[in-house]
Give the backbone structure.
Amino acid sequence: MSGAATGTIPPNLLDKPDPPDHTADVAAAGRQRGTYMGFVRTLATLLFILALPVAIVTSNIRVLANAPVVYGYSFDRYNAEDATGLSRADLDSTAAALRQYFNNNEKTFYHTVTEGGLPASVFNARETRHMEDVKVLIVWVNRLQELSVIFVLAYVVAFFLWARDSNVRQLAMQALTGLAVGTLFVGGIAVLAAFGFEAAFVRFHQVLFSNNLWQLDPQRDHLIQMFPQNFWRDITIVLGVMCAVEAALIGAVAGIYLLSTRGERRSLPGAIDVNTSQTQAA
């Protein structure tokens, strides 16, 4: 008697491998992406904390370097007409030419004034070469100011538009942290300006300039006669006050917001809670 056994599974079906499970790969990719995004957010936060005080300080430097009242203050306060022997009209025209020089593409500064009834360059060769070094420094400050301001604004906009797992309170805390960093820096400068400005002034030039062209003679060099060391002490104090006032205003806004939202967790517009947005397969 012969017959086929019922219910027998063909051997070729037993050898067929199970379909691949991609769940582990997807989970690993998700963890990797999460780690990368966490690093980017941390780096952006650190840059924001540093960029905020840099933007404040460099913006104020740029404002002061281009403000006619700053030049007029030096001429009036330190008797530039008597010190240089130049007319006020020549001093004012030199100041205007300097502001233009700081914002154009010219490498060398040249401006004529009247001395002894004859036209002459306001600065001698040594002063002119030093002004080339000064312009390089100012250009770097301007570029740093532009980059820091753009980054701060972009960070704030991105924070509100695309941030996840964050809130406005965190932005306020980050701003206060950045202001604290800036306060330490500006506060140190203020202490030096108040108690050891002359030594700090010399050290500043030694660090930023690779030559000694900045060492000018007050008896004959118009540049230092127009802008003596005491003027730079005064303007450093003004810079510190401007930075302090602006930092106080930003800090007040951030502090008031933190106090008014204490105990709350206010999510940003468009923020998504990942834990509650996932769906489960039945």
